[in-house]
Amino acid sequence: MPLTRGQRDPLDDFTRRTVSVDGTEKTVYVAGSGPAVVLMPEMPGISPDVARFARWIRDAGFTVHLPSLFGVDGAYPLAEARRTVVARACVSAEFRAFAGGGTSPVTAWLRGLARLAHAECGGPGVGAVGLCFTGNFALTMALEPAVIAPVVNHPSLPLDDPGALELSDEDAAAVAARVERDGLTVLAYRFENDAWCTGRRFAAYQKLLGDAFDGRVLAAETANPDPPPFFRDVVGCAHSVVTAHFVDEEGHPTVRARDEILAHLAERLKPHVQ
pTM of the prediction? Predict the structure, then answer.
């Protein structure tokens, strides 16, 4: 049954698992069948819009793995999350929210999740899709050989340097080498005039990855004009292409972006399916 505005998503069509990687346990919501895709939530957590995107991935023929990294699972994004969820994440040892911090340690756990998902689901590899706060994590996950389809959506870290990437110099070099060696393409999306993911950030990706970086920019006026309160009052600009600022109308640019992401995952993870 479709959710009404402001309603919490019970996530009861997902299997709730506790996954341990190197002694650290996290909750992961799993659904579907086929090759694995790790979808990382945006701030302030696994919102109904993030869960909707996870279901689209599931329905496209993948086993979606949705890890709980922050916030309240299934909660509608309210502006109050800025003082709670965002504030806690910015000082957490798992994340590197500001310039100079290097690669977020939580990405090591996420790479472990990708390895486990690949072993369980099989196929040629795993997709990794990041959103906002976790946007760049999809690129860092490419340090794991099982990850062969990284998708970077409106990456917002580091918060204090719009032209930087949330990567240590060593990891940046290793990612660039892996992308070139294995012929990976990094698909990325942002809205123009996004204050959290600027053209300078996409330029930094282009400099690091060259032609392997496929950065696509949507016009700001195409964004959903009535997103949830967190995105209206805290984010304050067109930002979340396939979640909060998505417009579910046939032919809409955000619908095309969603379909392009699903097609990219299928091309990489299901190459023999016609």
Answer: 0.96
Cα separation, 31 vs 90, in Å, equals 29
Output the CA angle 264-239-233, nearest 5 degrees: 150
* pLDDT, tens digit (0-9, with 9 covering 90-100), for 229-245: 999 999 999 999 999 99
**C-beta separation of 28 from 57 below 8 A:** no
Q: Which helix (H) or strand (E) holds 27?
A: strand 24-32
CB 204 within 8 A of CB 168: no
**Residue 200 burial (CB count, 10 A):** 11
Tell me if 34 sits within 8 A of 62, measured CB to CB: yes
Residue 64 CB coordination number (10 Å): 27
Q: What are phi and psi of 149, to 5 degrees?
A: -140, 80
Please give the single-letter amino acid code of residue 107: T
Q: pLDDT tens across 152-174, in order? A: 999 999 999 999 999 999 999 99
